[in-house]
Amino acid sequence: MTGESVVGRMRADLATGLRRFLHGFRELTTSSPSRFAVLVFSSLILLFTGLFSLPAAAADGQVTPLADALFTAVSTICVTGLATVDMATHWSPLGHVFVYLGVNVGAMGVLTLASILGLVISKRLGLRAKLIAAGDSNPMRAHGGPVNEGQTVRLGEVGQLLSTVALSTLVIEAVLAVLLYPSLLLGGVHPLTAAWEAPYYAAMSFTNTGFTPNAGGLEPFAQDYMMLTVLMTGVFLGSIGFPVIFALWRHHWHVRRWTLHAKLTLITTMILFFVGAGVFLLLEYDNPKTFGSMDAWDTTFQAFFLSAMTRSGGFSVVDIGDMHGSSLIVGSMLMFVGGGSASTAGGIKVTTLAVLALAVWSEAKGRPSVQAFRRRIPSDVQRVALSVVAWGSTIVAISTIAIAQITKAPVIDVLFDVISGFGTVGLSTGLTAELPDLGVYIMAATMFMGRVGTVTLAAAVAATSRSQHYSLPVERPIVG
């Protein structure tokens, strides 16, 4: 056999192997996008763990311990904002670049990222990919069966939705950076430094992460209401979710054309925002370590700011560890709910809370079905909402018990930080930074499960969805 024939055969084998790999890759992306998304997220976390372990990523030029590098990678990719090191001083400029890139990649979301990678391979979204992408935008997809068109994105809109995700991220962060730049200059930041910190703050607000590039955090800007308002706006836009942004972009102020999902997300978000601010104002107005030393205007504004940040923002002006225990419980409740579905926020999502509240109200009224805005919510969605709350509560309970046993810290502090991790919020009583390595790994796992989402995680673990062609006899157990 001549040398040319050997080379030709090697090339043919390589081409065959490449085609098989691409075929298998495409099958994975189209047959189970949820499982593929978990795989992609895990791979990204491993990649960024390696990047954060580089000596050049640390300010002191030393290798960052594995537990801290892994935790930072999970917190960055999962856009959480919790940290076991001082994020402003520990990392070098290269390390801050890694953080900035990581939060923007994580903000794209699990399913969106999987769809985009699948699109790279297939060059375009075919009918099958569109069906799966549309189906996975609906939690009912995890339970099999037909997908209600009113509960998902139409096939022709899937490609537009993916474009909206990328474009809205770039445009919103750019606008936020432009608005933040003057405030940084007025705060005494050097113009060149502000040119970096402005897009950094913009990314951290829109992605609901909450990292700050300067050692003092937001403390130097505690009285800059313009900057704090811009940060709240970025957190709000990031937390309502890309499907809501897509609906608002298409229909603007035509409220009747908004989807039920958009209406429930916006209404529930605003209710929690105002109620949370009112409760924080009531509980903390006499606390000299938080709001007690402020005047009436500062107290009111900071109450709204804290309410917005507990939804998943992660920024804080007051020391969370100085808050009353009652306020920590309220903050934990808000963080557990989180933001909108398919958003940069975590938690069980506001639509889950809205569906359960509507179900309770319908039951109290004796209605045969759950209705909202002249639309009927199927029982499948109600079961998914209950499952999400059950799984979320289980994850929080197990993590809280484990970390409380390891650290022997006050349970309220442990619960607050665990829910902050699960809801990918980033607020902390100070406990997370003091966790031993085992506690760090448990908290990292909690953040990962909170970001990936309970429904997506369940769909990824489930091998197949089985249909049952018969029904069993009915018998009603006593409940309540």
UniProtKB/TrEMBL annotation:
<feature type="transmembrane region" description="Helical">
    <location>
        <begin position="333"/>
        <end position="361"/>
    </location>
</feature>
<dbReference type="Pfam" id="PF02386">
    <property type="entry name" value="TrkH"/>
</dbReference>
<keyword id="KW-1003">Cell membrane</keyword>
<dbReference type="GO" id="GO:0005886">
    <property type="term" value="C:plasma membrane"/>
</dbReference>
<keyword id="KW-0406">Ion transport</keyword>
<feature type="transmembrane region" description="Helical">
    <location>
        <begin position="97"/>
        <end position="121"/>
    </location>
</feature>
<protein>
    <submittedName>
        <fullName>Trk-type K+ transport system membrane component</fullName>
    </submittedName>
</protein>
<feature type="transmembrane region" description="Helical">
    <location>
        <begin position="438"/>
        <end position="463"/>
    </location>
</feature>
<feature type="transmembrane region" description="Helical">
    <location>
        <begin position="225"/>
        <end position="249"/>
    </location>
</feature>
<keyword id="KW-0472">Membrane</keyword>
<keyword id="KW-1133">Transmembrane helix</keyword>
<keyword id="KW-0813">Transport</keyword>
<dbReference type="InterPro" id="IPR003445">
    <property type="entry name" value="Cat_transpt"/>
</dbReference>
<dbReference type="GO" id="GO:0008324">
    <property type="term" value="F:monoatomic cation transmembrane transporter activity"/>
</dbReference>
<keyword id="KW-0812">Transmembrane</keyword>
<dbReference type="GO" id="GO:0030001">
    <property type="term" value="P:metal ion transport"/>
</dbReference>
<feature type="transmembrane region" description="Helical">
    <location>
        <begin position="381"/>
        <end position="404"/>
    </location>
</feature>
<feature type="transmembrane region" description="Helical">
    <location>
        <begin position="36"/>
        <end position="54"/>
    </location>
</feature>
<feature type="transmembrane region" description="Helical">
    <location>
        <begin position="161"/>
        <end position="181"/>
    </location>
</feature>
<feature type="transmembrane region" description="Helical">
    <location>
        <begin position="261"/>
        <end position="283"/>
    </location>
</feature>
